[in-house]
Amino acid sequence: MITEVQILPSLYQLQRLGIINEISISALNGAPLKKLAESQTLKDAFPGQNFKPYPDFTQEDPDKAFPDLYKTALENAGENNIALIALPDQLHYGAIMEALERNMHIVSVKPLVLNYQQSLEIEELAEKKGLFVGVEYHKRADDRSLIARRRYKKGLFGEFKMGQAHLVEPWYYRDSNFQNWCTVENSDMFSYIACHYIDLVQFITGLLPVEVSVYGIIDDYPNGNKGYLYTDGRVIWENGAVLNVQNGLGYPNIGPGGNSQGMMLFFKGENDGGFLFHHDQYRGVKHSLLQKGNEPGDTQYIETSPDYFQLLEYGGEGLEPVGYGYRSIRKLIEATISVASSTNSEQKTALIKKINVSGILATPANSFFNELVMEAGRMSITNEGKPVTISYKDNPFVSFK
Ligand SMILES: NC(=O)c1ccc[n+]([C@@H]2O[C@H](COP(=O)([O-])OP(=O)(O)OC[C@H]3O[C@@H](n4cnc5c(N)ncnc54)[C@H](O)[C@@H]3O)[C@@H](O)[C@H]2O)c1
Q: Which residue, judged by its Cα, is nearest atom 10 of ligand 1?
C-alpha cells in the first residue's frame, strides 16, 4: 500500500531526476508487483519507467509465496546501494539485518523495529560498517511540524504540558492485507500509527517519553483474524507532561477525507498558555465531483489533502510528485547518497553523526525512543493497559511501573 501511494512514485521521480538508477522491488508474491506494474496512475505519471520484480510475476503464479527471494534482490543490488524497507512491521528487523550484512544503506518505513535491542543492534552494525540508516516519519517533513519545532525551540510556545492526538484510518483498511499481519500477536493500532504523533511531540519539543499505557479493543477482521482495532494510549514525558493518543481502523468509508487525524497541544508560559492545533486531515480543500472513483474509500464529495502526496502537472513529461510524503523520501535518499558517496570511513562517520545530531531525519541513534515506546506499548496493551516505564539510564529498558 505505502509502496504504491508514496514510495514508488517518489523513487520514480528521483530516477527521473537522475538521483537514483535502477529500482527493484521484492514482495512475498507476484500479485502486488503486478498491481504496481500495471497501475494506470503510475504509468500516466511516469511513462516508460519500471522496476525489476522479485518474483517475476510474468513467469510465476502471482499467488505463489517466495518468502526468501528478497535476499536475492538484495544480493543482486549489491553493496553501497539502498534497501528501502516497507514490509509488515514485524519483518523489518530481519530484512534490515540482511541488507546491512550485504553492506547496503537502509531507509525504512516507521516503525524501524518493534523493540529497542533490535534498534541498538541495527545502529551498532551500521555504525561499524559506515552505513546510513534512516527512518521514514513523513510527518516530520510536513512544513507545519518544522514551523512548530522552530517556534518551540525559540521558546515561543512555552513548555509542553498536555496534549491530545489521534489518527484513525478508514474502515475499509480492514479488508486489505492488514487482516493478515496487523493481528493481536504481531501489532496493534498503537504500534502501527501512534508512533507518528509521539515522534512529532519529541521532534517539536525535544522531550523524551518516560511512561506508556495503552488500552486496546480487540475486534474481528473480515477474515476472522483478531486485531487491536481501537487503541487509547497515554504517554507521560520526562517533564511530567501527558499526551493522549487515540488510533483505530474506523474512519467511515463514506467520510470525505483519507482518515481523521490531528494534534492539539497546550504549553505553559510565564503568565499565559501557549497552544498548537494542527488539523492534519482537513486542509481547507472541498471538492464535489460528478462521480465517485472506483477505489475503496472513494467518495463523491472529497476533502483532498494537497499537502501529503499528489501527482501534478508541472509542464514536464508525466506528473510530478509534491508534498511532504515525497519530500520525506527525497531527503532520506539524498542523505543516504551523501553518505554512500563519501570517500573514506571518517567522512562517512562524521556525516552520519551530523545527521543524528541535527535530529531532522530520524535515525536509530536519534529516534530510538520510538522503539522503547513501541516495546512499552506492546507490553501495556497485552496486559490490559498496565503502565510501563522507560528508563534511559546507561542501557535503556522498559519495565512495568
Ligand atoms: N504513514 C506511514 O508512515 C505508513 C503508512 C502505511 C504503512 N506504513 C508501514 O509500511 C509497512 C508496510 O505497510 P503497508 O500498508 O504498505 O502493508 P502491505 O501489506 O500493503 O505491504 C506489505 C508488503 O510486504 C510484502 N512482504 C511480506 N512478506 C514478505 C517477504 N518475506 N519478502 C518480501 N516481501 C514481503 C507483501 O507482499 C506486501 O506487498 C508497515 O511497516 C507499515 O507500518 C507506514
A: 86
The angle that helices 92-101 and 69-77 make with each other, rounded to 10 degrees, is 40
Please give the Cα distance from 116 to 109 (Å, whole number).
Answer: 16
The distance between the two most distant Cα atoms of the chain, rounded to a whole number of Å, is 70
Per-residue pLDDT tens for 47-74? 999 999 999 999 999 999 999 999 999 9
For residue 84 and ligand 1, the question of a CB distance below 6 A is answered with: no
CB-based contact 9:311 (threshold 8 Å): yes
Residue 91, ligand 1, Cβ within 6 A? yes
8 A C-beta contact, residue 5 and residue 109: no
Q: Are 165 and 352 in contact (CB under 8 A)?
A: no
pLDDT in tens, 101-133: 999 999 999 989 988 999 999 999 999 999 999
Q: Distance (Å, rounded) from C-alpha 155 to C-alpha 76?
A: 50
Contact of 108 with 135, CB cutoff 8 Å? yes
- Does 116 sit in the ligand 1 pocket, CB within 6 Å? no
